[in-house]
Structure formats: structure tokens, C-alpha cells
Amino acid sequence: MSISPELQAKIDALEDENLKARILRTLRSTGKKQVTDEEIYESILSSYTKAKERRARLRQWRPNEVAAFAQYFREKRPGDYAEFIRQEKEFKEIEPGFAWGIRQLIWEWMPELNGDDCDELFGEFRDYIKLHLT
Fold first, then answer.
1. What is the spatial distance between Cα 96 and Cα 20, in angstroms, rounded to a whole number?
2. What domain of life does the native source organism fall in (predicted)?
3. Angle at CA 110, nearest 5°, toward 105 and 111?
């Protein structure tokens, strides 16, 4: 089934090329649809908008804050700090249980953080470590 001209115009008006591609890929899939193309479009657009708003609310970590956490981590748990570096260097990933312990340390360092901001700092810290491994 082809996409209506009205819906195609809405899709074409979107700025994000990846979003357009995702919508078109979903609409053109061969599976049986339980809802209309318009409902699919609205659902994908709504999810995209909510995710974009959520990302915009995330705390933007400054390099000196990430470095301050690195120093806190190194001083508070030197053995775990070395293990973190080892896992990042050798495997380019952190074991999930160990990562959870690091998130607990982040909340100890900055108790008022929400989960999303904690996850963002964890990711920034991994990037910090990767940068300093080279």
C-alpha cells in the first residue's frame, strides 16, 4: 500500500533524516498493520519527540566535573579504578555488575543525581578513561 500524499508531505517536512528513514522503513514494511499509516507516523514522531526532550534535560557534564569524579573514584576505590581501566582497555566494555557498583559510587559522590544524569556521567567517565588510555 502506498503512502498518502498528505502523509508523505508531513514526512518530507521533517528535518531529521534518520527519523524520516525510520518512519518510511516502518510504513513500507511488509508485515500486517494493525493501525493506520497516520497512527504509525504519530507514534514514531511522539516517541522521537519525547526522547529528544529527555536528552535535552540531561545534565551537560563539563570536563572538569568528569575529571573531579575520576579523582574521587581513584582516591576512594583505587583497586576498582584500576579494574575499570583494565576492563575498558582489554574489553572495551564494563562488566554489568561492576558498572552498577560504579553508578553507586557516582550517587555517593553526588547523591542528588537522577538515574539518567548518572548514566550520562558514567558514559562521559568511560570516554574520559578512553581518552587517557592513548
1. 34
2. Bacteria
3. 90
Residue 111 DSSP class: T
d(CA 18, CA 128): 28
Q: Where are the domains of the chain?
A: 5-57, 63-133
Q: Is the dihedral of CA 81, 57, 22, 32 positive or negative?
A: positive
- What is the band of 30 on the pLDDT scale with cuts at 50, 70, 90? confident
pTM score > 0.85 for this model?
no
All 3 cell numbers of residue 99? 558498572
- As a whole number of angstroms, the distance between CA 76 and CA 72 comes to 6
At residue 123's C-alpha, the angle toward residues 122 and 126, to 5°, is: 90
Report the alpha-carbon distance of residue 126 to residue 134 in Å, rounded: 13
Query: Grid coordinates standing for 82?
Result: 584500576
